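Records of this kind hold a single protein each, on a pair of labelled lines. With that in mind, the following record should read easily:
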Amino acid sequence: MPDLESLRLLVLVGELGSIGRAATELGTTQPAASKRMASLERQLRLVLVDRTRRGSRLTPAGQVVSDWARKVLDEVDGLLTGAEALRSERDAELRVAASLTVAEHLAPGWIGQLRRAEPGLYVGLQVTNSTAVLELVRSGEVDLGFVESPNLPADLSYRRVAADRLAVVVPPGHPWARRRRPVRMVELAATPLVVREPGSGTRETLEKALARAGGGPAQPLLELGSTTAVRSAVVAGVGPAVLSVLAVGADLADGRLVEVSVEDIDLRRALCAVWPGGRRLVGPAAALLDIARRAGP
């Protein structure tokens, strides 16, 4: 596997047009950078850089790999930012709680952007389900929360920051994956599903959508405490599930999961920031809310 430093080098060569300038940016020598780039090309069995007297530029293959590398580096930055925020939970200057979908896919990027603007800021992040996030905000244990729940209490202030959609997903071998017609809503309601625990925003959104469409509550086949666990169970063939497209987008693109159309049911939802009612957000909390509103999908 290519190491992260080699991927950073490739991206910098594309941006700066020179292995030497990229080496300086990384704090290494040009010979060492050239050796690292040659090693990366051998690993991938691709010519990534066109070296000339005027400098270095990426080949067409190098440009594609550089774009992929940038995505990997962004994900790693999100992982490190999220991990630091989790470690900083107790003594943070800004205390944040987020439901699992938001915490896994959006919050690290938002917090990372805030930290780049305010390098000295100490941010703590608690990850739990939407119901627990609301309680943490209500009790004053956190300054700002992010939830995916469709049921927002009147005693809290809230603001929509992003849109999301749930999808009914099955593994490729499931009978629903080969259906030409959409699954009927009553059929979905009657089918045992792999679901999140009560209190999860994903579970509440599904239940509310079924109720609006005139169906009964979802029939749990297996109840799990995280989106990742539900997704893994579906991939393993345990049963269908309803999950955020943020969580299963890569699986749908790669063919590990198949999205099933369902008649007469709306599975769209808003992702919202919440804070104590009647209070005006200021300082880092207000800045994070603004970042989330501008960056959220």
